[in-house]
Amino acid sequence: MNKNYIIPNEWSIIEDGFDAENVEASESLFSIGNGSMGQRANFEEDYSGKTFQGSYIGGIYYPDKTRVGWWKNGYPEYFAKVLNAPNWIGIHIKINETTFDLNTCKISNFKRELNMKEGWLSRSFQATLPTGEEIEVFAKRLISVKYNEVGAIEYQIKALNFSGEITFSPYLDAGIENEDANYDEFFWEILNIVEGTNNGCILSKTLKTGFHVATAMEVEFAINGKSVEVPQETEIAEKSLTYTYSLTVAEGETITIYKYGSYVSSLNYKNEELIAAAALNVKSAKELGFKTLLQSQIDAWAEIWKTADIVIEGDVKAQQGIRFNIFQLNQTYMGTDARLNIGPKGFTGEKYGGSTYWDTEAYCIPFYMATKDASVAKNLLLYRYNQLDKAIENAAKLGFKNGAALYPMVTMNGEECHNEWEITFEEIHRNGAMVYGIYNYVNFTQDFEYIPKNGLEVMIAISRFWHQRANYSAAKEQYVILGVTGPNEYENNINNNFYTNYLAAWCIEYTVECLAKVRDLYGADFERVMAKTNLTDAEINKWLEVSGNMYFPFDEERKVFLQQDGFLDKEIIPVSQLPKSERPINQKWSWDRILRSCYIKQADVLQGMFLFENRFSKDELERHFDFYEPLTVHESSLSPCVHSILAASIDRMPKAYEQYVRTSRLDLDDYNHEVHEGCHITSMAGTWMSIVQGFGGMRVWDDGVLNFKPQIPAEWKSYSFTINFRGSILKVYISKNECKFMNESDSELKLFVNNKEISIPSNQLVTV
Amino acid sequence: MNKNYIIPNEWSIIEDGFDAENVEASESLFSIGNGSMGQRANFEEDYSGKTFQGSYIGGIYYPDKTRVGWWKNGYPEYFAKVLNAPNWIGIHIKINETTFDLNTCKISNFKRELNMKEGWLSRSFQATLPTGEEIEVFAKRLISVKYNEVGAIEYQIKALNFSGEITFSPYLDAGIENEDANYDEFFWEILNIVEGTNNGCILSKTLKTGFHVATAMEVEFAINGKSVEVPQETEIAEKSLTYTYSLTVAEGETITIYKYGSYVSSLNYKNEELIAAAALNVKSAKELGFKTLLQSQIDAWAEIWKTADIVIEGDVKAQQGIRFNIFQLNQTYMGTDARLNIGPKGFTGEKYGGSTYWDTEAYCIPFYMATKDASVAKNLLLYRYNQLDKAIENAAKLGFKNGAALYPMVTMNGEECHNEWEITFEEIHRNGAMVYGIYNYVNFTQDFEYIPKNGLEVMIAISRFWHQRANYSAAKEQYVILGVTGPNEYENNINNNFYTNYLAAWCIEYTVECLAKVRDLYGADFERVMAKTNLTDAEINKWLEVSGNMYFPFDEERKVFLQQDGFLDKEIIPVSQLPKSERPINQKWSWDRILRSCYIKQADVLQGMFLFENRFSKDELERHFDFYEPLTVHESSLSPCVHSILAASIDRMPKAYEQYVRTSRLDLDDYNHEVHEGCHITSMAGTWMSIVQGFGGMRVWDDGVLNFKPQIPAEWKSYSFTINFRGSILKVYISKNECKFMNESDSELKLFVNNKEISIPSNQLVTV
Q1: Considering only CB atoms, which chain A residues are within 8 Å of B492?
Q2: Residues B113, B133, B489, B491: which is the catalytic one?
Q3: Is the pLDDT of residue B355 over 90?
Q4: By C-alpha distance, which of A465, A485, A458, A448 is closest to A361?
Q5: pLDDT (tens digit, 9 = 90+) per residue, A303-343?
Q6: Which residue segments constitute the domains of chain A, with CATH numbers given?
Q7: Is the confidence at residue A2, as pLDDT, over 90?
Q8: Does the CB of B457 have a partner CB in chain A at under 8 Å?
Q9: Would residue A183 be called left, alpha or beta, if left means φ above 0 and alpha means ψ between -120 and 50 degrees?
């Protein structure tokens, strides 16, 4: 596909001119969603060119039978996949006798816009059909944030050079397949197709998981803006429902079809209520009308942007990039439902199963925590809390005992989905991220009560895991953790990964610290949790024996912690000396060669320095950054942001900016030639962190104090962001010369800027 | 299935009484073959019970599209599978109107025998059909060693309690599928079905590989032993050819059908010659007649046993076990065709792809070398020599340069078939076995000329691989080999596996030693090889820099070489302390738990001690045996034999015998509950080694001297074996009190017994 075809614009993603080569990429980039449902920017009308159709409903998945080369004990049988859901957007259109298909038309003035400020998608163009009819089309679509089971389409056709007949056949199609189905199975069963006048509904059920989903549509028509009733013909097929309406049009006239769609599912309704609920949704939507829905959408997004926006002066592409990231994160997860999470592709594609990864805890929580109400981040924590039993089962399958938990690498419902032994069984550092997420949340929100009520049980189960997973090395006279894969997945089955060992020891220490505090302050909760988990002081002492005597590989000569045992046996040659033709190494090299090389996929030791920066001196940070960053190939979308933040932290702004650029327009500029498969959602939170934590230097450690260390890339005039800090809205403006803090709350805010305490009175602006 | 149902017998495998539960196991155990083709012991007549049908032709394979969970660069696209070939043994039989099917009959006096001395399979029984007819059946079958494209069946039915009609429908069925097809594909295309009178032929072709195979049959009948002509009806279906013959029988009469079958393939003929060649084969077989074919079979096996037999006095089960192993090895590989090799299941099943593993070099060559003409072992070496180009391509795919070769882990045609990165890319010690095979062959046969003519090119390419695969560790100031899997596959992606490093250094040293000798003695060959490989002294010196400074992990306290870096970080708990319920660990534990445990699947450091025993002191051998054997779970069929031999070598006969017992009746007693899938052919060579090299203590190191150190298990009275030593037949008899050597050749033989030289004159017996 063509790179860089997106027109720079501060608030919109714009495609100018039609190129069939860009269709699949644009379907990803122009995706729309509301956290509960979403869809790729597929065309409403027929399109015979290359396209990747996708509509998704949050929390609705299918356990696809896993595909494996060589089975290993402990592998899960199923890979839970985000399900491609019934299509409600489709409208077959005929102009006189000719099917309208952009792939067969001459097209001019094609413009596609994703308006991020207002939350809608539009297309406009003129098309000449093979039979000569010229039409002008304007289509606008939204997935409502306010009415989160509803979407709406306004689709206008103007007859430019003819009078005749235009036939619209809006339809529901439940015969949808997943592109990534392992065995080409169809995942749905169609239960009922209900017809009506201008409205209809299909009730379908996912096989195996038995989720019931009703998909409804409602249509209305206008000629030159005036509502009209049109006779309807109905066609019911095995898996679809199609209505056909023919309208006579005179040259110069415009016909508009409004189509309202809705998904409702058994996640939120009883099965028998679904058809009625969906029908009511589309009826209400039609009664409100497209204009009202659009206005409510504009209002809802204005509310979101109030606390989420980042403004960059002097760099339109950077501005567009960061807003695209923030927009997609909000489209993917709104935070109102603890059963949902942030899939790596959100609602923009199927890849990676659409499930939950440790990305949520390590990368996404900071974004949602700082731009939304605390309840949003809490819902993300509760998601894991609610899956604790499954994590304990998962650990038991691998031989762990006594309520130890291992959270899955990839999951939809708490069960492990992944099946590569070196990841599934060995990339166990993810378990530490679960506890870090709690720690981070409590520091930022000061909602310590989450720990006695929920978090402590998770922390105990994870501490138990680490205690059992470590073993005493008689040779080292310390505890070791053997056979792991760190965040750098270019090393497998290694011993004593610094990051994993460090996180393991920290998890135990933090758990024990919290246990003491809960014992003191929340006696009843303490008793409840101790009874539920059968935890004893003797067991806690065994944990501490492990955490207090954990081995960390260290090189005395360089004074750096080593990524793992034996790291210095490798040939250490910086990435800069690798020929371009050999990169990315994950495409050019065989796996064994990658494994025995010194090259690092994403931050590993440095991930530890990032998470626990407050425990290392600046000297140490610099030394480790200088040793590891030159060996890092950044072949994960999660890599550059961490390095950007660390570089800013050690005052290396050019390096910080270089890494920031890599992350911020990853999808818009399609660096990895894969945006047609969907967007990289979770790394978008890393982009946000690169600005707020990186350039802005925002930190909240366990003293609960809000810190900033503002810096600005040479390329920018200024930037500003907003955070929701414990209910107070704080706007931060940073330019080359000054730094302003606007406290939009009703109470005074204290914070540290460059280690100096300042106080910002209620509703006041302070310049530093 | 029932274990231990095989009746002990010195020369035969016998099943007494019919049990449907044993059918699939017996189909494996009673398999017959002649090195060129073979088949499971499927019934000739219909059988509606559980059965696993299998007929195989050496060298005919199909590249089945590989199945993989997560693709890694460098994986092969295809897994070459041994092909289930058209069935020529089948005969549908009707007694009056009733189909004869053992699964629906009352059966008595059922006896199945595999006569290993004479090389035939038989069944006899009485059966009562559901409709009341009683018959007596006697069936005998052989795959001819002398006429190696031919098989023959004699099938007799006696009408015990009725007069009526018996209908025989002998058929050829080319609609055969592989049970282990990855995507349930059919691997054959049927090209032509040729009918005739009492004979017929199907020409078929393998898809993708395009091997052409003609399968022919010819039938004749006799009543009460007198030849009769019977009218024939013909049915040609899409993939099969069936003739039907009805014979009237009076009570007490016996009808015999003789069916002759043949495979001929494009390995040995032009495609257009195949039908005629197959037809000629079955016509000639019929002219010879079953009795003559049987006599030639008895003669051929007598010839094989002359040099291959091992006689054990005082233990019938041990006697049966060792003969079964020797018999199956001969059925699998006769050594006359350098395009064939020894599949892990031989002609007894489909599993593991029927391809070539390092088992051939490490386990099988000693057996074939000592029991057959030197040309047989040489053919096994030439198999690899002929695949050198593919091994160089394989290494190039993984980034190696300059003609370095990596032989595949699993192959049919020289291309790698396996697709697990930790095996395919990392279990590289196999490359060393290729050179060891040459070394072993040259020592035993003194055919040094093989090296200048063929072996040297292989050795150079492999030395190049080791040179490139090692890297200099600045930390250790020695060369290291990172990221490997040793013979103990319960460790993956480890660093500095002692066995691999040792073998790598030795490969280089031996290659350089041979280069010098070739330069001196075979100047022309030397020039040719140097020119062909572009080898320079400078490159050789770089190799020696690596081999001379190779790092071997060693524990100073225990004075043992360590299996790999970090081995002593593990919890070292002997297998004897593992609860029985946790074993075999490969069924009870998840893969990560196995990996981080100290448990060893098969000899690893000890594999090195076994191959290079002459380079270690007895003290060293004992120390390593005492450290590693207690940690070994022997969960590979290749494990016990090596430990048995080493135990004998350090005078631990009870341990040696314990390990011997594990290997010798592995299939007959179905230790692993999997014999229904086929027999473990390559480990059978290990059983032979356990006696000859283990108890008998036979060794030939690079001084070319033949050594024995005879010992005998307490459980045996005596044992004797024969070896073909450089064309001389030497019979060795060992009892508790004495040891006899019979030199059946025309020249004197010198050898060492317990380090004392003795001389055995031509055709003389010497007692020691």
Answers
A1: 492-493
A2: B489
A3: no
A4: A458
A5: 999 999 999 999 999 999 999 999 999 999 999 999 999 99
A6: 6-306 (2.70.98.40), 373-552 (1.50.10.10)
A7: no
A8: no
A9: alpha
